[in-house]
Amino acid sequence: DTRLRNGTYRVTVSAPNAEGKSNLAINGFGRERIAEGARHAAIRTENGYTVEVALPIALVVKNQANWQSIQLTATVTDLDDAAQTPVRVGWRGTNDVDARNANVGQFIRQP
Question: 26-33 contacts: CB < 8 A, separation 24 or more?
């Protein structure tokens, strides 16, 4: 089954506004918002912006007590004009990243 399920989270960081403020939201598929302990930073640069996100390991341990690896991808959604269709660019995975985790990056825990 390639459908996303428990243990899958969508982390959304908004681009910094003119005052340099951005928002962080973490949503679990089929769950309430989960953000306790998560942190983020986003700054504007000359050519766009840079984002960092720190997620608590509890998000992994909650679903995999003896976890060995995690999978993730990064997707940027760009919208310059509200009348246009947003453009998505993914780091790893497929265009249907909202429904499947095929070909995303896998990070293996070192012993």
Answer: 26/55, 26/59, 29/4, 29/5, 30/5, 30/6, 31/6
Section 94-98 average pLDDT: 76
- 3-state class (DSSP) for residue 46: coil
User: H helices within 1-111, ranges in order?
Assistant: 58-61
pLDDT tens digits along 30-49: 555 566 788 899 998 998 88
- Dist. CA 56–CA 80, nearest whole Å: 32
Contact between 109 and 61 (Cβ < 8 Å): no
Query: pTM score, two decimals?
Result: 0.72
